[in-house]
Structure formats: C-alpha cells, structure tokens
Amino acid sequence: MEGYGDALRRFRSSLFLPEEEQLEAQENIATNAQLSFEYLLFIVLSAVVSTLGLINNSAPVIIGAMVLAPLMNPVLGVSLGVVRGEISLLFRGIRTLFIGLGIGFFISAMSAWLIPEFLLTPEIQSRTNPTLYDLFIGMAAGAGGAMGQARRSVAGVLPGAAIAVSLMPPLCVTGIAFALYLGAGPVEETVAFSMFYGSTLLWLANLAAINLAAITIFVVLGFRQIRHDEDKRYFRRRFTLSVVLVLLLTFPLVAFLQRTIRQTREERYARKLLNDFAVNVLDEEAQLVDFRLEAEDPRKGWRNVVATIYSPRLPDRREAVELRKELEKELGEVELRLSVNPVNTYRENPEEGSISERPKPRAPKEEQP
After folding, report:
1. Do residues 155 and 86 lie in contact, with contact meaning Cβ atoms separated by under 8 Å?
2. Would residue 367 count as lying in a domain?
3. Which of 56, 74, 101, 239 is the most buried (most CB within 10 A)?
C-alpha cells in the first residue's frame, strides 16, 4: 500500500510545469515586468480613471481602473526573481513597480488639487479601513495571478485576480489624502492623515500578500532551481523577508479589524435602541429614517449620535435624556442629536377613519441637568 509520503510526492510532482512551459512563463513574466511605453500608458489611464471613479463614487468606473492597472505584472516579476535567484529580474520588477506607484500617487494627488471641492465619498472611505481580511484577499489574488501567468490553461483568471487585489484605488486614495493634508480641501489634518495611513496600509498589505503567495505558487510549480548553497541562502533570505513583512503588516490590520468589529457592534446597538425608542416610546407609526454614529470628538471627549425620526408625536426632554443615558451604557459619553419630524398619520378602512394631527412640542415636565 502506498504511504502518505509517496502519495504527497506524486501529487506535488504532478503540479510541476514541464520545462518548456516554465521557460515560456518565465519569458512572459520577465517581459511584462519591464518598463515600457505601454506599461506607463496604462498606469496613467488607470490612475485617472480610478481617481475620477473614487471622487464620483462610481464602483463600475473603479472596477474598470482595476482591470487597466498593470501593477501585478512587476510584482510577479519580483516574486519569480526571488524564486529563480535572478537579481536582474528582481530589481527590474522593483524599479517598474515603484515607478508605477509613483505615477499613480502623483496623478491622484494633483487631481485632488485641480478638481473643485469634492466630498469624501463612500468609495474613498471604504479604502481607508483595511482589515486582516484584505491580507487574505491579497494572498488569494496573488496565488491566482501567479497561476494564471504560469499555466496557459488558466490564463483567463488574470483579470479577476487584478480586480480582487485592487492596488490602484487605495494608492489613489493615498494621493488624495496627501493632497488634502497639504491643504487641497477643507478637511481636518487628523482626518487626512488617518486616510493616508489606512489607504497606504491597504496597498502595502496587498503588495506583500501578492508577493508571498506568488513565491509560494512558483515554488510549488517547480520554478525554483537550487544549484548550490549560495542559491539556497539567497532564496531563504528573500523568502524570510517576505514572510516577516507580511507578519509585521498583520498587527495593524488586526487592530483595524478589531476596531471595525467594535464599531459594527456599537452601531447595531444604537440603531436597535433608536428603533425601539421610535416605536415603543413615541408611536407605533414612528420610523427611524436616518442614523449616524460619529467618531469621538477629541476636543470634547464624547461621540455624536445623530438620528432623524418621523413620528406623529414629539418626545419631551425627559424621554430624550433617558435615551441618551441608555446609549451611554454601551457607547460611553455621547451627545444625542435627535431630529423628530412631526407627521400627519391617516388611517382609513371600510369601518373607520382617523387622523393623527401634527403635534406641537410639549414643554418638559421636569428640567433635567
């Protein structure tokens, strides 16, 4: 009976690419990692499209920028250079990658200066809070991209891998945040710096994850050829560096993930409390129509809970104070900004009809501190 070790070796050998396919894949990756007019053109186009898509809050436009961006090609060149021990390919890929990153950063920063005042759209804000999940996405996309470049039979996965990894949009957010920090728009420096830090961390994590996953896939496919001890030491140093970089990026990503989970839990708690207040305290016809939990104001030391409710009845101050105290049990000190819009409620059926007249604000029964 065949042992597990023999079965594992047979399975791994079945993954190896024939030498002819390896040479062809290596030539393609090396060619794509070169600095060329086509590479620079598509970097410029993808940066322009991505920046405008972010500012206009257009997801389809941003996806188009992801497909256009050729940034994965030099990253795969770096990974193959590590695996094969080819210094020239390694540095060629690094040079091409950093020139592309620099162009994307410059175009997005200049756009933030030239375009009239714009809002921080959800598409921009969504790329300023990376989590550990983004690292795993980068690894999966990097593995898919490396496999697609190496095996002709699965070359169709490359556009999907480019979309999943999305290097250009967070890079453009970094450029926009840098310009805002320097005064390109009416955004506080702390907000601009937070955007800059979060978006930079996102594309750095993607780069590190792609590199590590691609190195692993190239080794599994048999690209690594150790001729002597010096080659082995070179590979170990570069691979260890990639692993360490990924591990270092894990810590801030975990912190972002914990903050995101805590914020989601707090928003769920506040939304439920406000819904219960609208229906159970005000009126069964009342409805929470808008809600926002803001970050802590460092000058005041509390957070703002902003909500809008449509209701046939207005609350008195005692009820508002009680609602604020309930919110503070989970959120800490808050300032409640509650807007209650009075409405007329009509109820008509074959047996009866009624109308709840628009009410007037009631005076508080007892002044609260």
Report:
1. no
2. no
3. 74
The answer to whether position 219 is within a domain reads yes
pLDDT tens-digit readout, 90-132: 889 999 999 999 999 999 999 988 887 778 888 898 888 888 8
Residue 105 structural domain: 4-225
How many separate domains does the chain show?
Answer: 2
CB 328 within 8 A of CB 320: no
- Phi/psi of residue 159, nearest 5 degrees: -60, -40
- Average pLDDT of 139-146? 82
Q: Are residues 170 and 49 in the same domain?
A: yes
Could you tell me where the DSSP H helices lie in the chain?
Answer: 4-15, 19-32, 37-55, 59-68, 72-84, 87-114, 122-125, 132-150, 158-165, 168-181, 189-220, 229-276, 317-331
The domain boundary, picked from 174, 202, 225, lies at 225
pLDDT surpassing 80 at residue 2? no
**250 domain-assigned:** no
Indicate the range of 177-191, 255-269, 279-293, 294-308 predicted with least confidence: 294-308
Give the separation between CA 41 and CA 43, rounded to whole angstroms: 5
The verdict on residue 232 lying in a domain is: no
CB 134 within 8 A of CB 202: yes
User: Regarding beta strands 287-293 and 303-311, do their DSSP bridges make them parallel or antiparallel, or are they unpaired?
Assistant: antiparallel
CA distances from 205 to 142, 192, 209, 213 (A): 12, 20, 6, 12
pLDDT-based confidence at residue 241 (cuts at 50, 70, 90): confident
